[in-house]
Amino acid sequence: MKHLAILFIFSSILFSCTDKKVTQHLNDIETLQAKVDSSNTVFETIDLETISKYREIGKEQMNYIEKHYHDSTNFDNAKYIDVYYANYKLMKKIVKGHKRLASEITYTSAQLNDLYVDVKNGLVADSVYTKYYTGEQNATAGIVKSVSTLKDWETRSIKRYNGMVPSIDSIIVELKNQGYR
């Protein structure tokens, strides 16, 4: 029994002593994971439902205008329609980017968790750790930038849509009054 107690104490001391380098690696990975989690929190606030709804309305309006708008003398309306169309394309990019970014966040988070476990269990050599950490650091920086861009695009496109839709509706009403149904 006495030998078992000594073995237990020695094992506890051995396992409780962790290398400073390993501790630093674990802290670095936790920092990246915190950045991904923070970006994911912002990412989840993107109102994809509203963007999708506005995009569908914009698509219908653009299809109608494309089919019936042939006025080459009113350049103000044409410029306005061009800006509205650019906003419609921006909303398409948001929807497409949202899906891609969601999978990227999930994948990077899983990779960081796996790297953390591997480092904690001593399964990764320093050179291999550096390679994987650098890759995950770049992926995390890309996620932070992409989330910021999507959030900015969301804000701009919703404001632009809300400001422009009454004018586009008036152009469509005008076309309908001219007999284009």
Write a brief caption for the model.
The protein has 181 residues and is mainly alpha-helical.
Structure characteristics:
181 residues; mainly alpha; Substrate Binding Domain Of Dnak, Chain:A, Domain 2; 87% helix
Please provide a written account of the structure:
There is one protein chain. This protein is mainly α and 181 residues long. It has a single domain (20-177), classed as Up-down Bundle (Substrate Binding Domain Of Dnak, Chain:A, Domain 2), CATH 1.20.1270. Helices cover 87% and strands 0% of the residues. It has five helices and no strands. It has helices at residues 2-16, 20-43, 48-68, 75-120, 126-177. α4 packs antiparallel against α5. The chain is rod-shaped, with a radius of gyration of 27 Å. The N and C termini lie far apart (94 Å). The mean pLDDT is 87.
How do the strands and helices of this protein lay out in sequence?
Layout (H helix, E strand, L loop, with lengths): L1 H15 L3 H24 L4 H21 L6 H46 L5 H52 L4
